[in-house]
C-alpha cells in the first residue's frame, strides 16, 4: 500500500538503466527560461500587498492599545542564494556544518543513525513522510520545518543571516554551474561526479495502467567531491526509492554512513521548474489548484516543481523522498517552495484573506497522503509535530509568515 501510494504520486524512482546522458536541448524563445516582466510585476505586487497588510494590522492593533509583534520595521527578508555576498554564503555554509557537528537530541533508542543536530531534522522528516506530503499539512509543516532549521542555525550556531532560497528558473539550464552548486568554497558543494546513467523511471502501480514515465537524467550521480560538502557523510536512510542503493537499517533510522551523491542537471530543472511553471503557480485561483501545479498530477509525467527539483538534486539522499533533508540542498529548495506559497498568499490579499485560512478540499487536503486511505480534511488546529528536532506548533500558527511567531518575507 505504502509503496503503491508513493509510486502513484510519481515521486519514487524505481529503476535506473545504464545509458548516455541527455544533452540540454537548445532553448526556444517561449520556453520559460527567460524571466517574463509579468512575473516581476506579480512579485512586486505581492510585496506591496504584504507591506500594506502589515501596516493595516499594526494600525488596527495600536488603536486597540495593543503592540504588534510583526511590523515593517522588524520584518526580515530571506534572499536568493546567489544574491548573497560570498561572506554571507560562507557564513550559511559554516552554520550548516556547525549543526552537523553538534550532538543530536534524538535518543539513540529512537534513531541510532542520528549523529548530529542536523540529523534530528532528517529523523523527523523520515518518521512523518507519509503524513506530511500530498496532505493538508504539507505546506505549513514544511514552512515550520524550514523556520526551525533557520532558527537552529541562528540560535545554536551563531548564524546572523536567514535561510536563503534556490530560485529554480534562474539557473535552470545548468544548476550545477550556479552559485549554489558550482563547487566553489561559497557553494553548497558541487554536483556528484559524472557517471553515465539514465534518468529515473517511474513505474505506475499494478492495476493503474499507463506507461512507465522516464525522467531526464542529470549530469552527475556520483559522489560530491568539490566544495564545502565534499565527502560529507550521510548517516540516515535511505528508506526507499533509490534504484542503486539498498534501503538502510531500521526503516532508514539506523546508522548507514555513506558519501553524499547528487545528480544535478538542466534537463529536469528546465522541464519542471522554469519561469512558466512559477508564473502558472502564482496565478492559480485556489489552494487545491495551486497544490496540483506545485506537487503534480498522479500517474502522469507532470510531477510538478516540488518533485521536479527534488529529482534535479537527485542522488543520495536527495533522491529519497524520506531522507531528502539529509542533503543541505533540500533547505534551499524548500526555501523556494515556501517563498512561492508566501507570494501566492500575499497576491490573494486584494480579494479576501482566505489564503491564510483555507486549507482546501481537494485530494491533497486531507490528513493522509492523497487521501489514501480516506481521511478527514486537515484543520487549522492540527498539530505540526517536529519530534526531537524542534518545538511543535499548529497549522494555524504558521499560515501567515507575518503572524504568530513568524515575521519574514522574501526579496
Ligand atoms: C516498466 O518498468 C518496469 C521496471 O523496469 C518493467 O518491469 C516493466 O516492464 C516496464 N513497463 C513498461 C510498460 O514498459
Ligand atoms: C575527500 O576524500 C578523499 C579520500 O577519502 C580525499 O582524497 C579528498 O582530499 C577529500 N576531499 C576533500 C575536499 O576533503
Ligand atoms: C516549462 O514548464 C512548463 C510548465 O511547468 C512545461 O510545460 C514546459 O514544457 C517547460 N519548458 C521546457 C523547455 O521544458
Ligand atoms: C475568496 O477566496 C475563496 C477561496 O479561495 C474563493 O473561492 C472566493 O472566490 C474568494 N472570494 C472573492 C470575493 O474573491
Ligand atoms: Cu518533505
TrEMBL record:
The keyword Oxidoreductase applies. Pfam families: Tyrosinase. InterPro entries: Di-copper_centre_dom_sf, Tyrosinase/Hemocyanin, Tyrosinase_Cu-bd. The keyword Oxidoreductase applies. PROSITE patterns: TYROSINASE_2 (PS00498). Residues 327-338 form the Tyrosinase copper-binding domain. Gene3D superfamilies: Di-copper center containing domain from catechol oxidase. Residues 1-18 form the signal peptide. It comes from the Eukaryota. Transmembrane segments: none annotated. Keywords: Metal-binding, Oxidoreductase, Signal. One of its GO terms (molecular function) is oxidoreductase activity. PANTHER family: N-ACETYL-6-HYDROXYTRYPTOPHAN OXIDASE IVOB-RELATED, TYROSINASE FAMILY MEMBER. This is Tyrosinase.
